[in-house]
Amino acid sequence: MRAETGSATPAGTLLGRIERWARERPDLPAVRSGGRVLGYGELVAAAGRLAARLRRSGVGRDTLVPLWMEASPELVVAALGVLSAGGAYVGMDVDDPADRAKVILADCAAPVVLTSRALAGEVPASGAEVLIVEDLAAGGGAPPADPDVRPGDLCYVTFTSGSTGVPKGVLVEHGGVAGLVSWYVREFGIAPGDRMPQLARPSFDGWALEVWPCLGGGATLCLAGRRLPGSPQDLVDWLVRERVTVGFFTTALAVQLLDAHWPGPGGAFRAMLLGGEKLPAPPRVHPPFALHHVYGPTETTMLATCGEIPADAPRDASPPIGRPLPGLTGHVLDERRRSVPDGAPGELHIEGAAVARGYLNRPALTAERFRAGAAPGSRVYATGDLVRRRPDGALEFLGRTDAQIKLRGFRIEPGEIETAMLAVPGVAGAAAVVHEPPGRRDPDARRLVGYWTAARGAVPPDAGEITERLAERLPHYMVPAAIVRLDSLPLTPHGKTDRAALAAREPARPAERETGRDLAYRSDTERVLAEVWAKVLGVPEVGRDDGFFDLGGDSLLAMRAAAEARRRGVRLVAEDLFETDVLGELAAALDGRSGEPAGEPGTVRPGV
C-alpha cells in the first residue's frame, strides 16, 4: 500500500479507501491523540514501511500477526501495516492473564508479534519474532507494492470466550469488512470533517467498528486513551470538546451517557450507535441526536442489523434491533431450521457475504455453527439468539438459546468460567450466571455470580482464593463479582444445572468473606463511599477493607460510582479508583488530598 498516485489497490476495499484519502488529501487528519495529530499521508507511509518489514519476516496472505499494544496512534499504524502486508491482525488485551495470552499466541502460530517500546519487555513468550512498531514505522524507504487483497482474504481475528474453557478465534474476511465500511459511511454520511471516538480495547471487535468506518470515510479518529474519562459527564464533555460527530458505544456505557447532560440541538454530535447487549428501554428523554440500536455477533463482521429509535418509542419495552444490513438476510427458524411465522420466536440465522469464515483451528465447531448459503460464496451463521420478527420487518431480541452471556458488551461463555473454577483444588461443581437485581433495568446493574460446591473430603478454598485463581486465568470481565458456595447445585428435571433457578437467587455475600468485615467506618467519606459502592455494585454491604474491583467493579461502574460520590459531596474521579480501590485507603487518600481531616461519620462535608 502506498500514498503515491497510480495505486493498484481496488478503490472499494478498505485499503483502497484509506489510500485514496492519503493520495488526494495527505494532510487530512486521520488520528488525534491528545495534542498529537497523524495525517492520512503520514499514516499510510508509516504503515507501508512497517508492511515492508513484515513481508521480510514472512507475513503474507492469511498470516496472523498479534498486536500486543495499547490504544495509541501506533496501534492504528500496526493494524494498517499488517493489512498492507497482506496479513491479518489479531488484537490482544495486554491486561489478560499470561496463561490466556499464551493460549491465543499459540493458536495463532504467528511468525511475528508487534508491540510498542513501552510493552516490549512484557510480550508473553511464544517463539515469535517481536518487532517494535515505533522503530519500524519511522524513517524513509519506499513502501511495498500493494497487496492483491481478495474479498475472501483474512482481515482480522477476534478471540471470544469459548464454552470448552479455551478462547476461540473468529476469522473475519476483507469482503465483510469492506461491505460494513461501505454501508456505515453511506448510512451515516461519514466524510472529512467528521470526528469519531475510539474507546474500545483492540481485543474487542468494537475496536474495528470504531476505526475502519472512520478511516474509510476520511474522518478523524479521536483516541480517548486507555482509561475512559472520569465519569459519564466527563466523557460527554470530552466528546463535545473533541467535536465528535458520530460514535458507537456499548449499551451499558450508552445508558450512562444518555443520562448525562448534552448540549441542545445544533451540537456537533449527530448520531449514536449502541449495542453489545439488550437495551432494556429507550432513554427517558430523547437526546438531541439520532439513536440507532445495533446488533451483530463477531461472526457477522461487527454488525448485522440496525434500527433507529424514534423519539416517541414506547418506554415500557426494549426497542427492536432493526433490520438486517444490505447484503445480509435474517432467517428466523425453529429447532428443525424451518421458518417461523412473524411474531413467533425462533433462532436468528444470518446469511450473507459478511458472515465470517469460521473459527481458527476449530473445524468441528465451525461446522456446527456455520453452513453454506443459497448464493455462491455466502455463508449462514446460527447465532444462538432468540428473536421474533414484527409485522414491519424489524427484529426483536428475546434472549439466548443456550447459556451464553452478554455483559457490558462482552460475550461470555459460562463454560469457560466454570472450567477455571473446577481447576481450583477443593471445588467439585461450578456454575456461572448473571444476576439482575429486581426492579432495576439498567444494564450495568447486572452482576456475574459464580456458584460452587466443595469436593467431599477436601479442604474447601475460600472465596478470595477462588477469585485469585480465576484472575490468573480469565480476563477481568469474566471474573465473577461474587463467589457463592452451595451445598449442591440445583438441577432441572433432565438432570442439568438449573441456571434459571440460580439466576433467580438473591446472591448473598460468601460466608467466607463476611467473617471479619470491618463495617466500623472511621469517617464520613468512608460511609459515603460504602453507600455508593453498595448501590452501584448491587451488594448488601461494603467493608473498609473491600476493593471496588474485587466486588465486581469495572471502568464503567467506576465512572458511575465517581459521579454518584460527587453528588454526595465526595470529590472522587474514576481515576482515583485505579490508584487504590480499597475503601478505607481510598477515603484516607481523598481526605488527605483535600487537606481536611476525615470527619466522624454523620458530619456534613462542604459540597463541590
Task: Tell me what the structure shows.
It contains 18 helices and 26 strands. Among the domains are: 1-13 and 21-174, Rossmann fold (3-Layer(aba) Sandwich); 413-514, ANL, C-terminal domain (GMP Synthetase, Chain A, domain 3, 2-Layer Sandwich), CATH 3.30.300; 524-594, Non-ribosomal Peptide Synthetase Peptidyl Carrier Protein, Chain A, CATH 1.10.1200.10. The strands form 6 sheets. Strands 6-5-3-4-7-8-18 form a 7-stranded mixed beta sheet, sandwiched between helices. It has a 5-stranded mixed beta sheet with strand order 11-12-13-14-15. Strands 16, 17, 19, 20 and 21 form a 5-stranded antiparallel beta sheet that branches. Mean pLDDT is 86; it is low at 1-9, 508-515 and 597-608. With 608 residues, the chain is α/β, with parallel strands linked by helices.
